Amino acid sequence: MARDERVTLLEVHQALPEEQFQSLKFLLEGQVPAGLLLPASRPELCRILLQRFPGNSLGVTARILRQLGRLDLIQHFQLPLEEQIPEETPWEPNGDIPKARGDPTSGCHPGGIPAPPVNPRRLTEKDLMQVAQRLGKEWQEVGILHLGLERSRLEQIQEENPGNPVLWNFEMLREWRRRERHKATVSQLRSCLEPARLDPGILDFLQSLQGD
Fold first, then answer.
1. Which domains are delineated in the chain?
2. Structure pTM?
3. Tens digits of residue pLDDT in 158-200
4. Can you spell out the DSSP letters for the chain?
5. Which residue range or ranges hold the Death domain (predicted)?
């Protein structure tokens, strides 16, 4: 079965034109670190997906193909139907979740393990600004370790908004929301920030939004 999954996955990737293959990698950034994705060839990306989403690599790929409008490939390779694909937890670890590094699961990165959503409400810009006002000077640490953003992007945000730490925090959170798209919910952000060393008031604030 593992071999069938590997062969099918590679055939799906090889069926994509180069532009769509690069789009596939871009859309996977919320679940796999960009440092692994960007240089990956098609066989290397297959290995990454098989390792990180054991038993569900085809399901994860099918969800991205839907976003790319390639329903023809889903049908041709008989990939899992959407209702069979877990939405918030796209991979099923074999009983063991590494505690030290965390896992690059949906929306959360090393250090953050998402909990089942309590309230699927998406975050508004007002919500993000209120969180930004509570974040401290360790915003880059939060962005890299817990939101999975690239240091270069955070440095760019800092250059674009000189001397305004609240705007740095706000733009960082907007970048995370832009990347996560429909998964950028209150509960998702709270799950990502829970392991971080933050003012407890941030989690309390997000908890209050979940109860709205």
1. 5-77 (1.10.533), 125-210 (1.10.533.10)
2. 0.46
3. 888 888 888 998 999 999 998 888 888 888 888 888 888 787 8
4. -HHHHHHHHHHHHHTS-HHHHHHHHHHTTTTS-HHHHTT--HHHHHHHHHHHSTTTHHHHHHHHHHHHT-HHHHHHTTPPPGGGS-SS-----SS---TTT----TT--TT--PPPPS--PBPPHHHHHHHHTT--TTHHHIIIIIS---HHHHHHHHHHSTT-HHHHHHHHHHHHHHHHGGG-BHHHHHHHHTTS---HHHHHHHHHHHT-
5. 147-194
